[in-house]
Design goal:
Layout: H1 5-10, H2 13-37, H3 51-68, H4 72-91, H5 98-101, H6 104-119, H7 126-132
Helix pairs in contact: 2-3, 2-6, 3-4, 4-6
C-alpha cells in the first residue's frame, strides 16, 4: 500500500488538534488576565462581581485548563456557551454583522471550543496522560 501526502497529513491530525487547543487557549487566557490583572496593559478592568469580571475569571481559569488539556471537554463546552452568550449579549445588539460589531473573535472562539468539546483534547494533554497512566 502506498502512502499519499494527504494520508501523511491526516496522520498528524491528533497533534494539530492539540496545537489548535493550545494556541486558542493561550490567546483566550490573555483576555482573562487582561480583565483581571490589566495584563497585557489595558484601561478595562471590570469589578470581579460583574458579568465582565466573571467572564474574565472563566477566560483565565478555563483558558489555563484548556491550555494544559485538563477537563478539556467540559471546559470547552462551558467556554463555547460563554462565547455564544457574549456574542448575543454584548456584540449583536450593536449590529448583527460580526465585522461591524467586533464579535468575530467571540464567534470563532465559540465554534473552536465547540469543536474541541466534540473532538477532545488531541494527542498532547493532561487528560490523555491521566487516561494512559
Amino acid at each position: 500500500m502506498t502512502t499519499t501526502p494527504q494520508s501523511g497529513l491526516a496522520a498528524r491530525a491528533p497533534e494539530m488538534l492539540s496545537v489548535l487547543r493550545i494556541v486558542s487557549a493561550l490567546i483566550f487566557t490573555l483576555h482573562g488576565s487582561q480583565k483581571l490583572f490589566a495584563f497585557p496593559p489595558t484601561d478595562q478592568q471590570p469589578p470581579l462581581a460583574s458579568l465582565m469580571g466573571v467572564g474574565g475569571l472563566l477566560e483565565l481559569v478555563g483558558g489555563l485548563l484548556l491550555l494544559v488539556g485538563l477537563f478539556t471537554r467540559p471546559v470547552a463546552f462551558v467556554l463555547s456557551g460563554m462565547m455564544a452568550v457574549a456574542y448575543w449579549m454584548f456584540h449583536a445588539p450593536g449590529n448583527l454583522f460580526p465585522t461591524l460589531n467586533g464579535g468575530d473573535a467571540a464567534i470563532l472562539y465559540c465554534f473552536v471550543f465547540l469543536y474541541i468539546f466534540v473532538a477532545g483534547p488531541g494527542r498532547w494533554s493532561l487528560d490523555g496522560l491521566l487516561r494512559r497512566g
